[in-house]
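Recap from last week: sequence in, structure out.
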Amino acid sequence: MMTSCLQTQAAFCLVRRRAADMQHETVKIFRAQQDTAEILKEAVKDARLRGKRRIFVKPNMSHPEYVPGVVTDPVQLHDLVCLLRDGAEEVVVGESNGFNYPCWAAFEKTGIKTAVKEAGGTVVNLSEEEVVEVRFQDGGNSLKKLFLPKTVLQADAVVDLALMKTHEFAAYSGAIKNLFGCVPSNRRIYLHAYLSEAFYRLYSILKPDLTVMDARVGIEGNGPTKGKPVNMNLVLTGESALATDLVALKIMGLNLEEVGYLNHIARKTGLREEEVTVKGLQVSEVARRFERPRIDLPVRAQMEVYKHEFLTKVLFCSLDVVKLFQRLTVAYRGRPMQLS
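Predicted structure tokens:
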């Protein structure tokens, strides 16, 4: 539940933004299997996080139970929080309620709550935190505002702990898509009509200081939760979430033009794929063409609904209505639709 709402001006959007010449465009690719502690240690050092008093970490919790490649590995998260706690007074790990499951239950079932507490961090349900109304006054944009947790906005640094997946509605889910969980309302699905702009605003406001993409197991096909696991045995790190996503696309054999929201953000920020420097392993050494999502009738229908805010609100107004659609989807193809 949202505890309060503070009015703010568009200038608030710039609080966490760095100057353009401060943006880092280097991404490292590592080979990894079980233990990623040394990779994390190097990434934290590269990001110069020591001295940051309060650090917010955004894991990927798109499913209420731990599934490799679908949900952040609690062991990796434990190692990361331990490293961050060495130099920070407070490390907060946060996620919001899902459309059809409470965040606290997911924290418990995935093992993330236990892992974070054992590492000396704190877990928070962003859907219960105080929020700030961030207004945009650019003119011409249909997205006028976002409600974001004060906990995230007031952090001294943000760490984006992402995964490498295809997505049946967005084509790809990675670092920037992971930030969508910082929108505390479990009805953030209503923002799908403005998704590209919403993701751009989130990226611009939160501007993660460090992105770690756990690609030891990727998801291809109809991700983000119902796709096929792929053993990639990789970890990507960088100080630019967008640059990390652009490198991940190349590894997966996806074109930037296929991922509308990333193409939108790349154009608005001016970052081009060829401007990203890759260190460690090279894309050519690790690339594997991921199977694209199968855009069948239920996916096409849901994508059409998502184009219209009013239709989305009408058809996804309650869990009972969603369950009805899921039964119809199961009857059509044998598995329920996804809501991420």
